[in-house]
Amino acid sequence: MIETIRLSDRARTQLLTMKRRTGIQNWNVLCRWAFCLSLAERTVPPPETIPSDSPIEMSWKTFAGRHENVYWALLVTRAQQDGVDLNEESLNTYFRLHLHRGISYLQNRVTGGVDELLRMVAA
Fold first, then answer.
1. What is the CATH number of the domain that holds 11?
2. Which end of the chain is less crowded, N or C, counting CB atoms within 10 A of the terminal residue's CB?
3. Cα angle vertex 7, ends 74, 49, to 5°?
4. pLDDT tier at 122 (50, 70, 90 boundaries)?
5. Cβ neighbours of residue 32 closer than 8 Å, sequence gap 6 or more
6. pTM, whole model, 2 decimals?
């Protein structure tokens, strides 16, 4: 199980932008949106080394909230589909790849407020 989620400085900057655009003030809420946005893509996130060079970190419980089992099941199911080993290290890396890709997607696709974010889901 993932215990602590550490973000890159680039992701921190992108999330700060999203906080301003949407008015959503909680990192974990934006990260949930980002993770799900990345999972919705059919492609596997490209492998990359993601530094943990920002002061932003949260526990898995903070990220997932009361729906931690749902987010975990989404991660494991997608990892199985993509042929990722289901060991702790591989799942942690795979999660980080999806989270950081999703944060980039959020910043690039949502240029307006929270209404735009909601319209994206409805589409």
1. 1.10.1220.160
2. C
3. 85
4. confident
5. 63, 64, 65, 71
6. 0.94
